[in-house]
């Protein structure tokens, strides 16, 4: 058993976060900036961030929301649509505005209505991205009405992801927020141009957390949490030491009123205690010595970006996670809200 009381690691990054816009952006960005040096910022705004100009303007708004004295770099993404122009994407990458492009299958999740209806429509974009070394970030779920929601990730691998990787082996692909054993098996079997992010919630909860004893909207996100066997496969992968897995919180804030509704939004807001949440998992798996690679090394190495300088320190102690947090006037329930977590990030 690990008995460390204090853990110091290189400053980490979040390779998948939703910072939103407007008042909520100002409310949630400080939580991410306090924990992470950089973050891959998701483009699923309304309207989505589909152009270089829109990404530049959004980046400026994010930077305005970063508290003074905190060094935080937002890395912007291009929301792919059926009509994305390969040259725009390449120009945005070349100008240092876009770090990656995001593939949302149309109607797969929050803010994906303008997403790609058929991957065949974006092949020229993907070919261009492969040429210039720009990563593709994939929300890996099919949207077919006849496919059960708990099977949508596994079916996506078969129908879309495996054929894509076979066709464009040079393309860097991040399989985002993986939730199944099948996803782990796919990532393991793929070459080193395929990596994956794993969220804290998918390491902590299975679908019972959402459905036993009443329906719990704050445990609902997409891809939805699966059976226990899948959670165990994810924990094994994340703590394995493999360079293919890295930290991506998928922190996805929604107002309490939007979650606690007859048709509640998908998304778990884990930014306030993200690193503590991951540390708890690595601790439980006796793998604290592997947290640094997962949180601070594998991501930049995959993206071809420098490692951060500086460190952060976590200490073992009970911390009460508040039942709700204020995001600039909007109450949001954080992941672990109203419970205790066993690690604390030092200020
Ligand atoms: C995300 C959101 O709310 O923007 N929701 C979620 O459940 N993760 C969208 C996404 O990443 O799928
Ligand atoms: Zn997301």
Question: What does this protein structure show overall?
Answer:
There is one protein chain. The chain has a single domain, classed as Metal-dependent hydrolases (TIM Barrel), CATH 3.20.20. The mean pLDDT is 97. The protein has twelve helices and 13 strands. It is of the alpha/beta class and 347 residues long. Helix 1 packs across helix 2 and helix 3 packs parallel to helix 4. Strand 11 and strand 12 form a beta hairpin. The protein has an eight-stranded parallel sheet. A three-stranded antiparallel sheet has the order 1-10-13. The two termini are 27 Å apart. N-carbamoyl-L-aspartate binds next to loops.
Total individual domains: 1
Helix content: 25-40%
Strand content: 15-25%
Name of the CATH superfamily: Metal-dependent hydrolases
Q: Quick one: CATH class?
A: Alpha Beta
Characterize the biggest β-sheet: 8 strands, parallel
Quickly give the CATH architecture: Alpha-Beta Barrel
The tally of strands reads 13
Shape: globular
- Radius of gyration, taken over Cα atoms and rounded to an integer in Å: 19 Å
| Ligands, ions, cofactors | N-carbamoyl-L-aspartate, zinc ion
Order of helices and strands: EEHEHEHEHEHEHEHHHEHHHEEEE
* Low-pLDDT segments: none
Based on secondary structure, the structural category is alpha/beta
Spatial strand arrangement across the major sheet: 2-3-4-5-6-7-8-9
What is the helix tally? Answer: 12
Mean pLDDT: 97
CATH topology: the name is: TIM Barrel
End-to-end CA span? 27 Å
């Amino acid at each position: 058993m690990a008995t460390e009381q204090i853990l110091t690691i290189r400053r980490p990054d979040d390779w998948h976060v939703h910072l939103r816009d407007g008042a909520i952006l100002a409310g949630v960005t400080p939580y991410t900036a306090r924990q992470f040096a950089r973050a891959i910022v998701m483009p699923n705004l309304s309207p989505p961030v589909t152009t270089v100009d829109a990404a530049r303007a959004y980046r400026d708004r994010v930077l305005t929301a970063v508290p003074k004295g905190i060094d935080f770099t937002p890395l912007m993404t291009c929301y792919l649509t059926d009509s994305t122009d390969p040259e725009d994407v390449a120009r945005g990458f070349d100008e240092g505005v876009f770090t990656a492009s995001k593939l949302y299958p149309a109607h797969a999740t929050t803010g994906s209505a303008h997403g790609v209806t058929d991957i065949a429509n974006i092949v020229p974009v993907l070919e261009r991205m492969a040429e210039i070394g720009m990563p593709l970030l994939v929300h890996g779920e099919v949207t077919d009405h006849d496919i059960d929601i708990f099977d949508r990730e596994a079916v996506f691998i078969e129908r879309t992801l495996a054929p894509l990787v076979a066709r464009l082996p040079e393309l860097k692909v991040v399989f985002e927020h993986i939730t199944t054993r099948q996803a782990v098996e796919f990532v393991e079997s793929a070459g080193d141009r395929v990596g994956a992010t794993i969220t804290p919630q998918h390491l902590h909860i299975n679908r019972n957390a959402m459905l036993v004893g009443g329906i719990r909207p704050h445990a609902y996100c997409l891809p939805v949490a699966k059976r226990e066997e899948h959670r165990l496969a994810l924990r094994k992968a994340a703590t394995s030491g493999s360079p293919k897995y890295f930290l991506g919180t998928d922190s996805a804030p929604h107002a309490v009123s939007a979650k606690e509704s007859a048709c509640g939004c998908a998304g778990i807001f884990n930014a306030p205690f993200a690193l503590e949440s991951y540390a708890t998992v690595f601790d439980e798996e006796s793998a604290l010595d592997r947290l640094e690679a997962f949180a601070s090394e594998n991501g930049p190495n995959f993206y071809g970006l420098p490692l951060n300088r500086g460190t952060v320190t976590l200490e073992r102690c009970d911390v009460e996670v508040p039942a709700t947090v204020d995001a600039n006037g909007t109450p949001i329930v954080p992941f672990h809200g109203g419970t205790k977590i066993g690690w604390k990030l030092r200020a």
